[in-house]
Amino acid sequence: MGSLVILHDALYLEDRLTRGMVRGLALALIAAGVLFVMTSGMAWAVFERPMHALAEWMRKLRFGGASESPPRGLPVSRLQDESVHLAASFRAARSKEREEAQEIVRSDKAWTRDRLRAHAIDALGGQPLVVVSNREPYMHQLREGKPVLVRPASGLVTGLDPVLRATGGLWVAHGAGDADRQTADAAGCIPVPPEDSRYTLKRVWITKEEEQGYYYGFSNEGLWPLCHLTHERPLFRAGDWEQYVRANQRFANAVLEEIGDEKAVVMVQDYQLALVPGMIKAKRPDIRVGLFWHIPWPNAEAFRICPYRVELLQGMLGADLLGFHLQQHCNNFLDTVDRMVEAKLNWDHFSAEIKGHTSLVRPFPISVQQWSERGVATGTKLASHITTLRQQHQLDGCMVGVGVDRIDYTKGIAERFRAIERLFEKHPEHKGKFTFVQLGAPSRVHIPRYRDLVTELEALADQINWKFQDASREGWKPIHFLVDHHEGPAVYAFLKMASVCIVSSLHDGMNLVAKEFVAAKAEGGAESTEREAGGDKEGVLVLSEFAGAARDLPEALIINPYDTEEFAQAIHEAIMMDDKERRQRMTRMRLRIEEFNIYRWAADFLTALAQAKGRVDPSEAGQPRRPQ
Ligand code: F6P
C-alpha cells in the first residue's frame, strides 16, 4: 500500500482563463466597434446626410438660389412631401412678388415700403441683400434674470431696420447683449423683428479683448474723433489696430459663411467695418459690395494723422460703391484718396480706380420712415402717455423744448445747456413757462471720456437749475436731464409734446433726430386730444449748421452751437414764433421728409450699387480731373 501522489500544475487553467477572457473582451470590443461604425454609418447615410442636404437646400431657398427640387431620400416620407410643397409655395410666392413688384414700379408712387420691396427685387436681380454693421438692430439684455428686447439708440439702426423689413434678407452684426447668445440659435441667427419676423439677424461673437481694441479703442477713440472735428484728440494704439483688423475679418467671414457659394449684394455699414469690403472682395471678387459711411469724412489734412490711413483707404476701396451723407464728404474722401494711395481718380465720374477695380463715390443723405409705420400709440393712448409724462416730470403748464441724443461729446449737449442758461439770463420772462427736457442715452461708457461726460453734464444741468430755481416757481426747473435708455414710444411722446426741438451737434454726419422730430409733427392723429393733453402739432426745429441735416432742412432755425448768444437768441425766437410761420416752416420740412424718406434713400443706394461696374470701363478712364 502506498500513496500515489499526483501533482498537477493547474496554473495553465488560470492562463487559459485569462487568455480566454482577454480574447472574449477583444472580440466583444471589435464587435461593438463594428456595430458602432455600422450604426453611425447607417445613421449618417439614412438620417444625417439627407438632413444636411435638406438644411443646405433650405438655406439656398432662403437666399433665393434654390432652383432645383428638394433632395431625395429623406428619412420621413412626409418630410419629402412637405419640402416639395414648400418649394412650390416659395416659387409661387416669388413669381407673384415679381409680378406685383413690376406693377408697383410701373405705378410710380411715392416711396413706400412696398415700392422699395418691388424696386429691390429689380435692383438686386433676385439676389439677397446682406447688411453688415457693428451695431445690431435688436439686442437682448438680461433684466432680473430674463432676456428683454432692447432697440439700441443708433441712427444706423433707425435708418436700416425699415429697409431690411421691406426687402428681407440678412443683417450681420455684433451680438453685444448679455442675453444675445441664449436668444439666438447655434449659428447666432434669430428672425426679427421678434413679433413679426421679416429678416434674419446673424449675431457675430467677438472676444472681450477684440471688443476693447476694435470697438472702444480703434473705432471710438481713434476713428470717431478723427472724423468728427470737435477738437477731441484721436488715440491710435497698435494693439487696438490689430484687434480692429481681427474683428473686421470676423465680420467678413461671417458674411462669406452665410453667403456660401451663392451670389448676394452686401451693404457694409460705417467706420467700424472699413476693412470689410476689401476682405470680402479678396475671397469673392464677384460679390457686389457697397459701403455707407454714416459719419462725416474730414478733410485730407485732418485724416492724414491716422497711422493706418493707407490700409483703411485700401480696405474701403474694395467696395464698388462708397456712400456718404453729403457731397462735401465725397469731395473730402476723394481728395484723401488722391493724396494718400496709389489710385487713379476720375473727378468727372467721382470714382477711384485701384488695381483695376473702380469704386464710385456718391452722396446719399439718409432719412427716416413715418412714425405711423412703427406701431406707436396715437390718439387717446398717445394723449394719455403725454399726460403721464408731463405729470411724472412736473412739466404741466410749460412749453417744452426737447433734445434726444446718445450722450456723446459730438452732440453739443453742454453747448445746448449753456444756451438755455443764457436764454433765461437774457429773457427771464420765459422762467416758469418754458422748460427743456434732454433725453440722454448712455453710450460707450467704458471709454473714460464718455463716462466723465455724463457726470459733467449732470453737474452742469444741476448748476443751471440751481441758478434759476426759486420758491415762487415751485416744481419748475430750466433743464430736465433724463439719463436713461428711452424706448421709441417715450421718444415719440416727447417729440409730439415738444414745441421746440434742439439739435446742436458740433459735427454730425446727418443727425436723424432732426428728421424724426419733423416726421413726428407730420402725423396729426387725434390732434385735439393731444393738444388738450399738452401736445404740440407744430414745432420749431433749432438745428446746428454742422449737422448734415442742416442741408436738407433749411427751414429750421440754423445755429452755430459755439456761438452761445446766437444760439440762445434762436431758442427765444423759436418760443416766440407765431403760428403761421411755425406752420409754414414745418410744412416745407415735412413735405421734404415725406418725399425723401428712408425708402428712397435705400432705393437710390441700391440702384447706384447695381449700376456700379466694379471693374474699370476703358471708355470712362479719361484723364483724371479735380473739380474746381
Ligand atoms: O450713426 C453713427 C453711429 O456711430 C453708428 O455707427 C452707430 O451705430 C451709432 O452711431 C451709435 O453708436 P454705437 O453703435 O457706438 O452705440
Write up this protein.
- The protein has 628 residues and is of the alpha/beta class.
- The protein has a domain at 376-594: Rossmann fold (3-Layer(aba) Sandwich), CATH 3.40.50.2000.
- The protein contains 21 helices and 18 strands.
- It has helices at residues 11-62, 77-107, 113-123, 155-167, 180-183, 208-227, 238-259, 276-283, 300-303, 309-316, 327-340, 379-392, 413-426, 448-468, 488-497, 512-522, 527-533, 549-552, 564-576, 579-595, 598-611; strands at residues 129-133, 139-143, 146-150, 170-174, 189-192, 199-204, 265-269, 288-292, 321-324, 344-346, 351-354, 357-363, 399-406, 434-441, 479-483, 500-503, 540-544, 557-559.
- A ten-stranded mixed β-sheet has the order 5-6-4-1-7-8-9-12-11-10, with helices on both faces.
- Helix 3 (113-123) crosses helix 4 (155-167), helix 13 (413-426) runs parallel beside helix 14 and helix 13 crosses helix 19 (564-576).
- The protein is elongated and about 140 Å long.
- 6-O-phosphono-beta-D-fructofuranose binds next to helix 4.
Distance between the termini: 137 Å
**Level-1 CATH class name of the domain at 376-594:** Alpha Beta
Bound molecules: 6-O-phosphono-beta-D-fructofuranose
CATH superfamily of the domain at 376-594: Glycogen Phosphorylase B
Radius of gyration: 31 Å
Considering DSSP H and I runs of 4 or more, what fraction of the residues is helical?
Answer: 40-55%
